[in-house]
Specification:
The chain has a two-stranded antiparallel sheet with strand order 1-2. The chain is mainly α and 339 residues long. It is built from 13 helices and 2 strands; from the N terminus they run H-H-H-H-H-H-H-H-H-H-H-H-E-E-H.
């Protein structure tokens, strides 16, 4: 088998490995390295730019350029290991599979969300602190004021929004890389593009805030992340109804998700949550507190039941089914290109 034909198999192996082991805490994760790099670059830029908006925008653009291109180049260099003489080329397959799995977050997202749901007491008057603590590790909102309903809604919204950011967007770019290998074997492949996307996502999560210097410093990273997530998000909107019967409601669900999600300031987050809300049958959105700031998010799936344990689990199960569909679709496309 030629190395360029391995792209699809590497993606499948990475998805399976991610589901099996997730992100072991003792292993150095590429996102940790990206985060450290962002902190160092931010320190240098802020020393140079001070509070000057134009300089901060330029510096933010340079940080984004350095981090994304550096991540793509690092992934591409690891992919070149496949071209080493046998048997070394074949020994590189486990390295590439593990590296690709690091760009996927299906297992870690599932475990984190279920840690919140499972920590909720069976009795209504039970202690909510364990669930609040677990939720605080995965969301930016204030969790101390959340009651049982609020905790479940936050878990459901995290499961639906981060399914796109943490699973389907990197999976999409892996697939593009695998297909690109088939026509340009020496070009960037699944790992290069996946790590490039993870770099943009990490930039957005660390610098994409509208406060202080980050109003200007984080603009480039946030815009790039929106751009790279735009198409995967729309593909999730189009394909999620296919794994959530009845399929005859496909048109209505997509239209409703676009209507509800477009009210969100983010071009992707609202739509990500909205398609899950309408496919699973759950109401999401509403008031969120971030420190002293209250944010009124659009209501998604108005009139549907509010979040509960089974509905949160249904969101996670739908993501698992859709991941299988996407990987199968990649295999079909590769097969068609080979014939």
């Amino acid at each position: 088998m030629t190395s360029e034909a391995l792209g699809g198999l590497l993606v499948i192996g990475a998805a399976v490995l991610d589901r099996l082991i997730g992100d072991p805490r003792r292993w150095l994760h590429p996102v940790v390295v990206m985060g450290w790099s962002i902190q160092q670059l931010r320190h240098w830029v802020e020393r140079w730019a001070g509070d000057h908006p134009v300089k901060l925008r330029i510096g933010g653009g340079l940080i984004s350029l350095i981090l994304v291109l550096g991540s793509v180049l690092t992934g591409w260099c690891l992919e070149r290991l496949l071209w080493l003489p046998s048997p070394w080329g074949w020994l590189s397959i486990p390295v590439l599979t593990l590296s690709l799995a690091s760009a996927l977050a299906a297992r870690s997202l599932k475990d984190s969300v279920l840690a919140v749901v499972d920590a909720l007491p069976s009795a209504e008057e039970g202690d909510l602190e364990p669930a609040r603590r677990n939720l605080s590790w995965i969301v930016g909102r204030d969790v101390q004021s959340l009651d049982r309903t609020g905790l479940l809604r936050a878990a459901a919204e995290t499961a639906s929004e981060n399914a796109v950011d943490g699973l389907f967007a990197p999976l999409f770019w892996m697939g593009i890389g695998a297909l690109l290998w088939m026509v340009l074997p020496s070009g960037p492949g699944p790992l290069a593009l996946a790590w490039g996307f993870k770099a943009s996502s990490t930039l957005d999560s660390m610098l994409g805030y509208r406060s202080g210097r980050l109003r200007w410093l984080g603009t480039a990273g946030a815009r790039l992340d929106d751009l790279l997530t735009w198409l995967p998000c729309r593909l999730v909107m189009l394909t999620l109804p296919l794994v959530c019967p009845p399929w005859t409601h496909w048109v209505q669900r997509v239209q409703a998700a676009e209507r509800d999600g477009s009210a969100d300031p983010s071009p992707n987050a609202g739509r990500s949550e909205a398609i899950y809300a309408h496919c699973i049958g759950i109401q999401l959105g509403g008031e969120n507190r971030y420190g002293k700031r209250l944010v009124q998010k659009p209501v998604l799936g108005a009139g549907r039941p509010t979040a509960n344990g089974p509905l949160v689990r249904a969101i996670l199960k739908a993501s698992s089914r859709l991941e299988i569909v996407w990987i199968s679709g990649l295999g079909i496309i590769q097969w068609a290109m080979n014939h």
